[in-house]
């Protein structure tokens, strides 16, 4: 996993956030979840750090690896590019664009977070593709690169071998999505739990989260959503959840959509699919039992939702991910 570091001097503090996301998700070994874990390498656009430099002291922006090391990586992530490259159209760091092209041509999966999309677009890797970035910059991205199908509303776009995300926390959503793709839902859910973040926000979820719910409101949705996750094997309706939250269905609908960017029914479906994925990975239960425990119903209904939302059948999904170790609980998320 090669992460591009585009600035080595006077790095704006806000740019460290996007850089820290892949470092946090992929950089710390999680041997009890998956072994081997990812081999993370920070690849700078400038001078390499000498091998006798300090070790174990945190982040050094004079990196040990350079742009040549992007070739041969399985995945290349561009967390951001310098602000002048976005705001003023300044050139990208020398050598970055051809290095990205060589990495893609060698078979790397290419990923951008936030303004990193400008680097992938400049390399021509987004031509004819749907892509996103932070909504503050999508208009500039679309104007500068008219061949890119810019979507300013979604959290992230998975186009197979090229993936892009919106800014800030959406970058974390995309990185967890990569773990989910690579190692399965169970591992991604457990990692998200350790990071104290939502296990899965679908890429199509809206960037625009309405924050108008008063901060002093004491009727938070957390407890009722936790209760719903614990009762996915039961029939649940918006009216059931609203009643448990002591809200009218209309108010519950509005607050859940404001908080999550999705409707209550879609939120429930996402939770049920996540439970089914975890059970498929970590148990040998029959499709009938998995449909029952996840609340997705009959095997035919389970298959229908998997094909529509995930793109593969439950049987193919189970074959794609090996069964978790016996110590791993399928209900741990």
From TrEMBL:
Entry keyword set: DNA-binding, Transcription, Transcription regulation
InterPro entries (UniProt xref): Class_I_gatase-like, DJ-1/PfpI, Homeodomain-like_sf, HTH_AraC, HTH_AraC-typ_CS, INH-QAR
Cited SMART domains: HTH_ARAC
Domain HTH araC/xylS-type: 222-320
PROSITE patterns: HTH_ARAC_FAMILY_1 (PS00041), HTH_ARAC_FAMILY_2 (PS01124)
Name assigned to this protein: AraC family transcriptional regulator
Lineage: Bacteria, Bacillati, Actinomycetota, Actinomycetes, Micromonosporales
């Amino acid at each position: 996993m090669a992460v591009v570091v585009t600035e080595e001097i006077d790095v704006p503090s806000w740019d460290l956030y996007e850089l820290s996301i892949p470092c946090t998700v992929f950089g710390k070994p999680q041997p009890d979840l998956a072994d081997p874990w990812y081999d993370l390498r920070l690849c700078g656009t400038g001078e390499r750090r000498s091998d006798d430099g300090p070790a174990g002291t945190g982040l050094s922006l004079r990196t040990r690896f350079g742009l040549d090391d992007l070739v041969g990586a399985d995945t290349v992530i561009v967390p951001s590019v310098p602000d002048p490259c976005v705001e003023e159209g300044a050139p990208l760091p020398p050598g970055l664009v051809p290095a990205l092209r060589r990495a893609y041509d060698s078979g790397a999966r290419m990923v951008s977070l936030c303004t990193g999309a400008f680097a992938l677009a400049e390399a021509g890797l987004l031509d004819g593709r749907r892509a996103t970035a932070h909504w503050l910059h999508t208009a500039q991205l679309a104007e500068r690169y008219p061949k890119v199908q810019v979507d300013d509303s979604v959290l992230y776009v998975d186009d197979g071998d090229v993936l892009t995300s919106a800014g800030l926390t959406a970058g974390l959503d995309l990185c967890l999505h990569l773990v989910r793709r690579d190692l399965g839902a169970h591992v991604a859910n457990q990692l998200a739990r350790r990071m104290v973040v939502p296990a899965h926000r679908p890429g199509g979820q809206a960037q625009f989260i309405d924050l108008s719910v008063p901060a002093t409101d004491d009727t938070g949705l957390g407890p009722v959503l936790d209760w719903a996750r614990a009762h996915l094997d039961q029939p649940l309706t918006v009216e059931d959840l609203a009643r448990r939250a002591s809200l009218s269905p209309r108010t519950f609908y509005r607050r859940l959509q404001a908080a999550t960017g999705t409707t209550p029914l879609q939120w429930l479906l996402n939770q049920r699919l996540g439970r089914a994925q975890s059970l498929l990975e970590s148990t040998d239960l029959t499709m009938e039992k998995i449909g029952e425990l996840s609340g997705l119903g009959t095997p035919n209904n389970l298959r229908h939702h998997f094909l529509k939302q995930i793109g593969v059948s439950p049987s193919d999904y189970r074959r794609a991910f090996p069964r978790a170790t016996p110590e791993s609980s399928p209900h741990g998320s």
